[in-house]
Write a structure and sequence with these properties.
The protein has about 120 residues and is an all-alpha fold. Helix 1 runs antiparallel to helix 3 and helix 3 packs antiparallel against helix 4.
Amino acid sequence: SSLFSFVMAFCGMVLLGLGVYLATTANSYETWFGGKTLSISYTLIFLGLVVTVVGFLGCCGATNESTPLLLAFFISLFIIVLLQSGLAITIFVFQEELENQITASAKGKVRVVRGTELR
């Protein structure tokens, strides 16, 4: 359990680092993300912090054999799994609509970069 918690905390730090990188280099990604780079980077920073804290709870709880920390770790993981399940169901239900929006957005971004019209 301690190894899993450590890997989880490490992944949270990677997300945090990616979010900070995107926030500091936002101008170079403006064309592709349509001005939403900062919201994406702040979301990654927030998720990275949450995952790091949850992983830290698991590490400390397993190392110290602390029941309250392990309970907090379990509850946090349970909430994360519920949120992921809800997101997966939402994506499945609105799959076709999401594909259309992503395709239209990608074609628009390619037009901007190329400076031409796509058919």
